[in-house]
Amino acid sequence: MMTGIGTRLAVGTTLLLCLLFRQYTAYAQDTGAELLLREHSYEFRREIIEITDGVYMASGYGASNSAMIVGESGLIMIDTKESKSAARAVLEEFRAISELPVKAIIYTHGHVDHTNGTTEFVGDDELEIYARTGFRDNLMPDSDLSAISFARTSRQFGFFLDSEEFINMGTAEYPIRDEEGDGYLPPTITFDEERFEVTIEGIDLELVAAPGETDDQLYVWLPGQRVLFPGDNFYKAFPNLYPIRGAMYRDVKIWAESLEKMRQEGAEYLVPGHSRPILGTEQVDKALGDYASAIRHVYDATIEGMNNGMTANQLAETVTLPEELADSPYLTEFYGTVPWGVRSVFNGTIGWFDGNPTTLLPLSEREQAERIIGLGGGSDNLFMELQDAVASEDYQWAMQLADYLLATEYRTAEAREIKIRALRGIARQQINPTARNYYFSVANELSRQ
After folding, report:
1. Residue 207 pairs with which residues in a beta bridge?
2. The whole model's pTM is what?
3. CB 249 within 8 A of CB 347
4. Using CB atoms within 10 A as the burial measure, which of 86, 91, 128, 424 is most buried?
């Protein structure tokens, strides 16, 4: 007869096996890319992590990380989340560690997912907010571009996708959105020095200018504790050298230089604005070194190809990372991609014209479509080719064929429906969640037309 402990172990094992079976059957139809994305979501599990004495990080509580440094009689917060409710959730967890008032906030940069929960950290004590001079100046203006900016941002991050379509955002599992309004507060202290040294609540900090993902980026260095906060200049994914939602040009050459500057600090702890911390001097140096080398390689290879007369399309097809970088766990294309980075460098350094005079005055989309359809033997033939392409899971070709037919308004409803199938099919093949989210979002938009 089983003992009470043996019975409980048997029951527990059975429950565990049932749980694993349900999980397996739920994801049994996943593509390889989807399985990798689900595994990547574990990077964003909720946890308050003690980095070292008096330094804590909140991981997984929304779209970005926040950190808390415990000073003599008050707290220093680094970044404040994307919403008031996300900020409250983090503050509640931090309050289990310290009841000291928040005396200072440091913004690593101006993106809203790092700055929109600030009001939740305000108490009765005087609060100073630190940032670089020019804070938020380089963000895309939303007064003229609000409609397209919102549409593309919501597609990239999958704001309106259902649970079967959405897996994660690449640098976070999901954002916490609410209807409470913006909790952002502007900086009270800005600096334009390369390195701004300050002591807050007995803690020596260095705020160091580090342009990269944004021009207003800084990193926070705690020399006494050897803790480095890189903001969004580093996270566990290939860097978003160009976001498909649209952005001003990100100077990737300077981004790589900022990472090399961080390496020189000799940090023992690296606490990113997204993804989990990296602990250990060698591990931190390796992570920052791989990141800097990858960005610099994309820049150098693109510039070399441009000077050799290659177009953006040719470079996007041929520039790849060296094997030792492609295999780095910090450079999987879970957020940015090498081809998008290549195109950004090309356009950001020399503009949209690729140097081929054929592209100066191209045919209209409709005229080009009509001529391609003519070469293909007519609309009926092209439509059959479209059906064959989607049936054989040749989704990129199917989308292009569908666009030719849609441009000429041939069997519009049917061509649109097949394009939707192609979009959903290619979405499931993507290891990059921003591409996946964008494909699914546009498919859903088309299905409502």
Report:
1. 196, 220
2. 0.92
3. yes
4. 86
Same domain, 396 and 345: no
Cα atoms in the 13 Å half-sphere on the side-chain side of 419: 24
Is residue 214 a contact partner of residue 258, using CB atoms and an 8 Å limit? no
User: 218 and 345: one domain?
Assistant: yes
284 and 216 fall within a common domain? yes
Number of domains in the chain: 2
pLDDT above 80: residue 27:
no
The type of residue at 296 is R
Q: Residues with Cβ < 8 Å from 276, sequence gap 6 or more?
A: 43, 49, 59, 236
Domain boundary among 350, 385, 418: 350
Question: Does residue 18 form part of some domain?
Answer: no
The DSSP 8-state label assigned to residue 164 in this structure reads T
At 178-207, the pLDDT tens digits run 778 889 999 999 999 999 999 999 999 999
CATH number, domain with residue 379: 1.25.40.880
Say yes or no: 274 and 413 in one domain. no
Q: Is 7 within a domain?
A: no
Does residue 35 fall inside a structural domain? no
For 198, phi and psi rounded to 5 degrees?
A: -150, 145
Place of tokens 């609410």: 178
Distance CA 63, CA 221 (A): 23
Distance CA 18, CA 361 (A): 62
Amino acid identity at 195: R
Residues 249-269 pLDDT 10s? 999 999 999 999 999 999 999
